[in-house]
Amino acid sequence: MRNCFLVFLVIAGFQLQAQPSLKGGLGPFVQSNKLYPRYSQINCIQGTVNIAFKLDKKGNVYYSEVRKGVGTDLDDEALRLIRMSSGKWIVPADHDTATAIIAPINFSLSDCTGKSPREVKAAIDAYKATTDLTNTVLNYYRNKELGKPLGVSESRIMELKQTLEIDDAYLQQRLENGTKKLKQKDNQGACEDFKFVKYMGSKLADELLAKYCK
Q: What does the alpha-carbon distance between residue 191 and residue 174 come to, in Å, rounded to a whole number?
C-alpha cells in the first residue's frame, strides 16, 4: 500500500512581503520524514490536515496546532512533521512573528480497496470516541485541580482509565516521549505530554512541568 504526502503553505492574511521558506522545501522535508500512522493506514483513512504554526525570527516553530483535521492519528503525524521542521526555516526580516502560517498536509493511499466508505467512517468514529473518553478523564483532573464541579464519579474515571489501558507503564512511556521531544527542541510537544501525565491523575511529571512548562 503506497502513500504520498502533499503540502503547500498559506500565510494567514494578505501579504506582499516575502514568505518564510523551509530549507530544501517543505514538500521534500515531509516526504523524507513522514510515517503514515498505523491506525489510519490499516483502516484506509485519508485526508488533509491543516496545521497552523508561528515562527520566530530564528526560524523556530514556537507555536503549532491542528487548525482542521481528520480526527485520527493523521492529525498527530501532521503536527509532528511541522514541529520537526523547527529551526530549519528561513524567515524574511520583515516577517510578522505573530502571523499564523497554514500548512495543509494531504495524506493519501494508493491501492486502498480493502475498506468501504462506510467502514472508513466507522473507523474514524471509533477513533474519535476513544479520544472523547480520554478527554473525559483529562477534564476530570483539570476540574479537580481548579475546584470546579467534576460531573462524573472517581470510580467512573478509574473504569475509563482501565478501558483505555492507561496505567503507570503507559504514563511512563508518555513521560519518556516528552523527554525525547525536549531533546528535539519541541518544548510545546513535550509539555503537552507532561500535562497529559498530570491530568491522568499522576504526579510523575510534576518536576518536569515545573522545570520546563512554566
A: 11
Name the amino acid, one letter, at 194: F
Q: What is the pLDDT of residue 9?
A: 57
Rounded Cα gap, residues 191 and 64, in angstroms? 13
What structural domains and CATH numbers belong to the chain? 3-109 (3.30.1150), 117-212 (no CATH)
Please report which helix (H) or strand (E) contains residue 78, including its range. helix 73-84
For helices 73-84 and 26-33, angle between their N-to-C axes, nearest 10 degrees: 120
Beta-bridge mates of residue 136: none
Backbone angles phi, psi at 61, to 5 degrees: -80, 105
Shortest CA distance to 120 belongs to which of 109, 132, 136?
A: 109
Distance separating alpha carbons of residues 140 and 156, to the nearest angstrom = 10
The answer, as to whether pTM is greater than 0.85, is: no
**15: pLDDT strictly greater than 80:** no
Burial class (CB in 10 A: 0-12, 13-18, 19+), 149: exposed
52-108 confidence digits (pLDDT tens): 999 999 999 999 999 999 999 999 999 999 999 999 999 999 999 999 999 999 999
Cβ atoms of 122 and 34 within 8 Å: the answer is: no
Q: Which residue has the cell 493511499?
A: 109
Distance CA 177, CA 173 (A): 6
Q: How many CB atoms lie within 10 A of CB 55?
A: 24
